[in-house]
Amino acid sequence: MLVAIDRYIPGLGEALEPYADVRPLTPEEITSDTVGDADALIIRTRTRCNSALLEGSRVQFIATATIGYDHIDTDYCAKRHIEWTSCPGCNAAAVCDYVTEAIREYIRSGARPRSIGILGVGHVGSLVAAAARQMGLETLVYDPPLGLHDDVSGADILTLHTPLTRNGAYPTYHLIDRDMLQRCRPDALIINAARGGVVDEQALLNSTQPYVLDCWEGEPDINRELCLNQRAFLTSYHIAGYSLQGKINASQMCLDAFCAHFGLPPCTIKKNVVPLQGDSSSGWLKRISLQLKADPQAFEQLRQTYRLR
To answer: What is the pTM (predicted TM-score) of this model?
Structure first.
């Protein structure tokens, strides 16, 4: 059996070696030529799994070491009988940590928010809600699939924790658009640590609200004007969920799904595969923001070399 994997997923290659031939690849190296003879594919958000990549391949199983899965053409996979899985909740604590640090920086800047509106109250949003209450913020929650319909438009902070979907009863693509921004407080802080397409970036650029962006449309070629705008309170290079524990959780969830699919005995990712060496001291997010604003074109390089929190 041959498994093609994103080489930046920690611990996975070593764990898979007893069961399969492992082909570690960078995201740029994952092409139809390099995965055509693979039985399984384990990737991150940089790899689009669609007909262009998979047509004519032997791939029967895909795992993405991420919460989101909009980079997987699920309809195509269903037609091809390719099983796929993601890792919901793997980095929820890390994203919550990012959002709370963003709020702390906002307060350090002199802001005095009293309320927060949370759109999406799943693995991440529920943690953010609990953290916000501990910070003394009135917490409003909006998640129609869960029957939660608080009016968040008057909140001082609006934070997004939804998947990116374009269809269904409650699509989230451009959930934050011009109309929504006009209904919100003109000075409300908008935080997006979910998926880039949940926010209409042109509408945000033309609005009055300050914002914190970790996820961007068109990554890694991000909107330079949006990054450098004076209302860009904090910016980062899609690392809100980048923590040691989050990475290990994702690796383990991918491994569990792989073993279950192929009927293999379970095994465990070694906990010491990635050294904990990132900066978690006060002000770490502000330093990251200054780093990206100094060179928005370095988005992907900064992301690949980011030291896990």
So the answer is: 0.85
Q: Is 231 known to be catalytic?
A: no
Q: Is 195 a catalytic residue?
A: yes
Catalytic residue among 46, 71, 161, 238: 238
**pLDDT tens per residue, range 175-213:** 999 999 999 999 999 999 999 999 999 999 999 999 999
For residues 114-134, one letter each, b for 16 or more C-beta atoms within 10 angstroms of the residue's C-beta and e for the rest, the string is: ebbbbbbbbbbbbbbbebbee
Q: 18-76: per-residue pLDDT in tens?
A: 999 999 999 999 999 999 999 999 999 889 999 999 999 999 999 999 988 989 999 99
Indicate which residue of 174, 195, 303, 309 is catalytic: 195
Active site residue 238: yes
Kindly give, in sequence order, each residue whose CB lies less than 8 Å from that of residue 50, ignoring residues fewer than 6 positions away. 72, 73, 76
> Which one is catalytic: 29, 83, 138, 219?
219
Q: Which two tokens stand for residue 273?
A: 């595969």
